[in-house]
Design goal:
This protein has two domains: 220 residues, Glycogen Phosphorylase B (Rossmann fold), CATH 3.40.50; 159 residues, Rossmann fold (3-Layer(aba) Sandwich). The strands form three sheets. The protein has a seven-stranded parallel beta sheet, with helices on both faces. It has a six-stranded parallel beta sheet with strand order 12-11-10-13-14-15, sandwiched between helices. 40% of the residues lie in helices and 15% in strands. Helix 1 crosses helix 13. It has 13 helices and 15 strands. It is α/β, with parallel strands linked by helices. It is an enzyme of class 2 (transferase). Keywords: Glycosyltransferase, Transferase. One of its GO terms (molecular function) is glycosyltransferase activity. Its EC number is 2.4.-.-. This is Glycosyltransferase family 4 protein.
């Protein structure tokens, strides 16, 4: 039994277990803190009509947005705080699902550490792509996004909704700017925060960790396997990956797409037709971390074809931990860990022909893939181990608790 620190932390998130990288990160952090003697409570924000999950939802609060949402749920939040009695609160994203007056209430009630997990505060569409031409966006998010033509309301009623959203989001950003400790997983997200008015002294770059798989190395699949693990949504790029796979020609290869989401039907239809028929398998969600690690370890290359600028791209780091190189578009927080030509290949954003060429290079050259994969695993072992990341996070907690 770990020795208790006598301290309580309330982890606040808007994802259920199994719902992406944020949930994985919070589960890892909670388990590590519990082993270090913290009493960990979790508050899950949830949508309407979402039933409790046994053993997972001791503290729950409905999604809220704006002052009206804060007014409806303030008493419920106070009840959670009274029950959990945290010494410290750690908020994970939830930038549109916890009304900004409730965030201010949390920050005033006890020490608060917040982690930004995505670009939502800095882009209404969460893409950081300029809509008319799809180019990477360097603008500051705000009213000008509507005047530029990037955000185009569909009619007068939609325009009114956008106006309210702009006002509420600006108010939320103002509260976030005042938080004394904001963790970000990449220098890319830190730069966006600085661009949008965050205080430099408040920002701490704390890259996500990845555990080295415990199982012995497995033989790589033959023919060479291209693996994709992630949500089947447009921004994650599974359709862009299919475009790239169609360019690989007659060389021997196979692919596995693991994940769930609204694009599953379209993906299933495309892979049933030539030239992908018989080469690409759609597996759905994998059952647990061990299954993900096993798939990545069998692959010649893991594809990370995100069309939006990722805040970090945890799946790619997990691939490196498995000793497998990554091909990704060179943008956003992916470049926190991806070293072109050292642990994978980075290609120009949105260029599916270049993405296909990078995949082909690793499919054709097993020695190169092995060398890049080994370097990636060594990088994870040296720079992204869970124990070091946990200690860095705990140090921020200690600082928060020690500040009057």
């Amino acid at each position: 039994m770990p020795r208790s620190t006598g301290r309580r932390v309330l982890q606040v998130l808007d994802k259920a277990p199994g719902e992406g990288g944020v949930a994985v990160h919070v589960q890892w952090l909670s388990e590590g803190l519990a082993q270090a003697g913290w009493e960990v409570h979790t508050l899950r924000l949830h949508g309407a009509a979402v039933p409790p999950r046994a053993g997972l939802d001791r503290h729950r609060l409905p999604f809220s947005y704006g002052r009206s949402g804060a007014w409806r749920h303030a008493a419920a939040l106070d009840a959670v705080l009274a029950d959990a009695r945290p010494d410290l609160v750690h908020l994970h994203g939830a930038t549109t699902r916890l009304a900004h007056p409730l965030l201010a209430r949390l920050a005033a009630a006890q020490p608060l550490v917040a982690t930004l997990h995505d670009t939502r505060l800095f882009c209404y569409a969460m893409t950081r792509r300029f809509a008319p031409d799809g180019s990477p966006c360097t603008r500051t998010c705000g009213p000008a996004c509507f005047g530029s033509g990037c955000m185009r309301p569909a009619g007068a009623l939609d325009a009114l909704r956008w106006q309210r959203r702009q006002r509420v989001d600006a108010a939320a950003l103002a509260v976030w700017r005042q938080l004394p400790r904001v963790l970000v997983p990449s220098t890319y997200l830190a730069a966006l925060a600085l661009q949008h008015g965050f205080a430099p002294q408040a920002l701490r770059v704390l890259p996500h960790p990845a555990a080295l798989p415990s199982q012995s190395p497995q033989p790589r699949d033959t023919p060479p396997l291209v693996a994709y693990v992630g949500s089947l949504i447009e921004l994650k790029g599974p359709l862009a990956l299919l475009d790239a796979l169609e360019r690989l020609g007659d060389r021997p290869w196979q692919a596995v797409i693991a994940g769930t989401g609204p694009l599953a039907g379209e993906i299933a239809r495309r892979i049933a037709r030539p030239p992908l028929a018989g080469r690409v398998r759609l597996e759905g969600a994998l059952a647990g971390r061990a299954a993900v690690d096993a798939l990545m370890a069998r692959a010649r290359v893991v594809a990370v074809p995100s069309l939006a600028a990722e805040s970090f791209g945890l799946a790619g780091l997990e691939a490196l931990a498995a000793g497998t190189p990554v091909v990704a578009f060179a943008q956003g927080g992916v470049m926190q860990w991806l070293r072109d030509g050292e642990n994978g290949l980075a290609v120009a954003p949105f260029d599916t022909a270049a993405f296909a060429a990078a995949l082909a290079r690793l499919i054709d050259d097993a020695d190169l893939a092995t060398r890049l994969g080994r370097a990636g695993r060594a990088q994870v072992a040296a720079q992204h181990q869970p124990a070091a990341a946990l200690a860095a996070c705990a140090a921020v907690y200690d600082e928060a608790l020690a500040t009057p």
